[in-house]
Amino acid sequence: MNLSDVLARSQSPRRSSQSPVSSLAGSSSPSLPLRADTHVQYERLGTDVTLQCGTMAWDAAVTWTINGTDIESSHLNGSRLVLRAVDLSQSGHYSCYEGASWHNKYQVLLHVGTPPKEPILTCRSNTYPKGFYCGWHLPSPTYIPNVFNVTVLHGLQPLSCEKAPTPKNRCQIRLMHLFSTIKYKVTVTVTNALGHNATTITFDEVTIVKPDPPENVVAKPVPSNPRRLEVTWQNPSSWPDPDSFPLKFFLRYRPLILDQWQHVELSDRTSHTITDAFAGKEYIIQVASKENDIGTWSDWSVAAHATPWTEEPQPRTTEAQVTETTTTTMTSLAPPSPTKICDPEVGNSAGAVSWTAGVVLAASSLLFI
Length: 369
Fold this sequence. Notes:
Residues 1-32 are annotated as: Disordered. Residues 30-96 form the Ig-like domain. By secondary structure, this protein is mostly beta strands. It folds into 3 domains: 3-113, Immunoglobulin-like; 120-208, Sandwich (Immunoglobulin-like), CATH 2.60.40; 215-306, Sandwich (Immunoglobulin-like), CATH 2.60.40.10. The chain is built from 4 helices and 23 strands. The chain has helices at 3-10, 21-24, 319-333, 347-368; strands at 39-44, 49-51, 62-66, 69-70, 76-77, 80-83, 92-98, 103-113, 120-124, 131-137, 147-154, 157-159, 162-163, 170-174, 184-192, 195-203, 215-222, 225-234, 247-255, 262-266, 271-274, 283-291, 304-306. A 5-stranded mixed beta sheet has the order 1-8-7-3-4, with helices on one face. Strand 3 (62-66) and strand 4 (69-70) form a beta hairpin. The longest helix is centred in the last third of the chain and has 22 residues, at 347-368.
């Protein structure tokens, strides 16, 4: 049945289609808009639920619908609707209609869910010494709306916890007393229509200091050094005063072909040269940070990748190139060919020149006589 069919049937004075509740909950649009007197009812997942048709008598003839679709009469006990071991699919808009007049007598929005379990609460300072934040979440969904309330005490003094825009389940607390030995106590309480729960943690300020990971981690090969990699990084931008509260760093690296990491702990320097890399192997490098004296290590940074310098291979010389080079060299060293006195193609002209020269010499001799 498509949506238009459901809507058409919802406007009809007679309804003959009947289906089980569990298979149709939420499958179509409500037959009627929500009225101001629509009731809202929350029920626990897996329990039996009874919906009454307003003030109608127990034995009155009624029809129930969920989201505009008729419910089988087998779910009725008189005028009441009985739902056994409700599941999430049975959340929806239920309506009760009076017998033949088809007059809507009652509407209820049923929400199936669970009471909340103890929330998981964590507090951390990544902006020491300015303050810290606390975040919370439920270990499992409740499927219905929850309201959280957070209280913070420094000794007996209440502190404000300012809600952060994102993420929604987080608030910020300013550190009012630096280096205080008085403990903080944070409690988060969660409440919904089916129950409530709470979690409390107590801590010293120095135990929750945990910087964000270092930023802009870059690794580069060192020219002419096949076993070296130069690694640089920056302090996390969220750390407000690295001069007064310097960070130390922990670097780990390994070639991609191996699973075992090598580690180096460093002072407040933001660079390091790896000197024992495998030549020609790609490496993965990460860095963590920690306040010099207090707190815990940050998470690992985004990984940087680099391969140590390798010498450019010399071009290979083929046998054909060797033969060509030898031939060229021998040709360039060969003596020039002797000059021809008489070219066959111009032999007749050369003979004529020689005969003319002889006649001239003979004439000259006669003159001297």
